[in-house]
What we know:
There is one protein chain. With 452 residues, the chain is of the alpha/beta class. It folds into three domains: 4-154 and 258-327, 3-Layer(bba) Sandwich (FAD/NAD(P)-binding domain); 173-241, FAD/NAD(P)-binding domain (3-Layer(bba) Sandwich), CATH 3.50.50; 338-441, Enolase-like, domain 1 (2-Layer Sandwich), CATH 3.30.390. The protein has twelve helices and 15 strands. It has helices at 16-25, 47-52, 54-72, 88-112, 191-202, 222-234, 304-318, 347-352, 368-372, 401-413, 418-422, 432-441, and strands at residues 4-10, 30-34, 116-119, 121-124, 129-133, 139-149, 183-187, 206-211, 238-241, 291-293, 332-334, 339-344, 357-363, 379-385, 391-398. The strands form three sheets. Strands 1, 2, 3, 4, 5, 6 and 10 form a seven-stranded mixed beta sheet that branches. A five-stranded antiparallel beta sheet has the order 11-12-15-14-13, sandwiched between helices. A hairpin with a 5-residue loop joins β5 (129-133) and β6. The chain is globular, with a radius of gyration of 23 Å.
Amino acid sequence: MKNEYDVIVIGGGPAGYPAAIRAAQHGLSAACIDDWQNYDGSRAFGGTCLNAGCIPSKAMLESSELVHRAHEEFAVHGIGVGQVEVDLAKMQKRKAGIVRQLTGGIEMLLKSNKVDGLKGRGRLLSENRVEYTDPDGETHVLQARDVIIATGSTPIELPSLPFDGERIVDSWGALEFSEVPARLGVIGAGVIGLELGSVWRRLGAEVTVLEALDSFLPMADKAVAREAQKQFKRQGLDIRLGARVSGAELGDTGVTLHYTDALFGDGVDVARDSRGFIEVDEHCRTGLARVWAVGDCVRGPMLAHKATEEGVMVADLIAGEVGEVNYDVIPSVIYTAPEIAWVGRTEQSLAEDGIEFKAGQVPFGPNGRAKAMEQATGFVKILADKASDEILGVHIIGPMAGELIAEAVLAMEYQASAEDLQRTVHGHPTLSEVLHEAALAADGKAIHAVNR
Length: 452
C-alpha cells in the first residue's frame, strides 16, 4: 500500500475492480478498496454480484433446474431415475466453491495487473483524499488524483419487516437456507424475486410472490411479460399483483431502495437524487472535480455488465483515452425457466414516441433444437424501424435467451437492419434459427414459421 495513487477505486464489485485493472493497464498507479464481508467473516472482492447475487443465484438456479427436469422431463426422454433426492447441503457447498474460485480469481487479476487490492472500508474525504480502514480497524489516509466510487447498492429493510436472519431475510439470506422452506413469501416480482422464487419452488417450497405494482414485469415487452406470467403460473409460482405488504411503505420498485451509507466525510458534498443514487453526467462524472461514480450507485439499469462497462469507460477517460457506454443496447436477462432477455425498445415505448415500426414474432415451438431439448416454449420478437429497417429492439422468452440476446446486441451496436439478420446464415439445427426467422417475419418472409 502506497500513500498516493493516480486512481483509487472505492468498491471491488463488477464496476470497481475492472476500473482499477483498466487504470493500471494505462500505466496508472491504482488501488481498489472493498469492504465485502461474508457470513463466516472472510473478506472477498467481487461485491454483491460474485458473492451474493449473480453468480451464487445462477449456481442455485442451475441445480434446481436439474431437479425440476429430473422430476418433469426425464421420463419424456425415456430416462427413469427412480425417486429424486435433493442434498441441499451439497448443493450449497457447490455454490460456495464456485464463488470462492471466482472471487479468488479477482484477487489474482488485481495482483497480476499491479493493482493494490485493499480489503476494508473506504471513505471519500475532501481534496480527493480517501480514508481507508483496514480489517484490524486501523485507519490510513491515502491521496488520489482521481477517485472512482463503485460502492454498489444494498437492500433496505421495510419498516414493518426488519431482517432477523432466519424467517425474514434479504436476497443474500435467501440463497443460504440450510433446508427447503415449506412456504416462502417473496416481496417483489422483479428479476431477483422471480429467480429466487423459481429456485425454491423447483426444490419443493410453496412460493407466493407479492408485487405492489398492478402489472407484471412492466419493463419488459408486454407479450413477453404475458408469456412469462403464464409459464410461471404453470410451474406453481403464485404471483399476486397489486399486493402491498401491510404496514410497509413501498415505492414504485416494490421493496428495495438502493443507497450508499457513510461513504462521504465531512465537507464532501456529492449530489444525490431522491432515491439515493449519486448524480452523474453521461460519462459518470460527479459534481466534484476528478471524482467519478459508476455501477449500481448511479442512474441506469442495475446490471453487473452495465457496471463493468462504466468502470472501464471511466478508467479510459482518466487516462485521456476515448471512453463511452452505449446505454441504448444494454441487454437485460432474467434467468428463470424459460429465460427472458431483451435489448432496446419495446412496442409500447415506440408507440408512445410515435415511431412507426414493424414486428416479426416467431415461436420456439417448431424449432428442432428446442424440441430436442424439450424446451419448445416462448418466442423471439424483433422490432425494426418501418422506414430504415434498423433493428430497434429484440425480445426473447425461451431456452437460452440470455445467450441468444448477444447476437441482437451486436447487431444493434452496429446499427444492423432486419435484412442484415435475414441474410446472415445461422447454423442448423440451433436455437438461433428462431432469431433468424423473426427477422424474416418482420417482412412477412418467414420460411419455417407462420408470418405475424
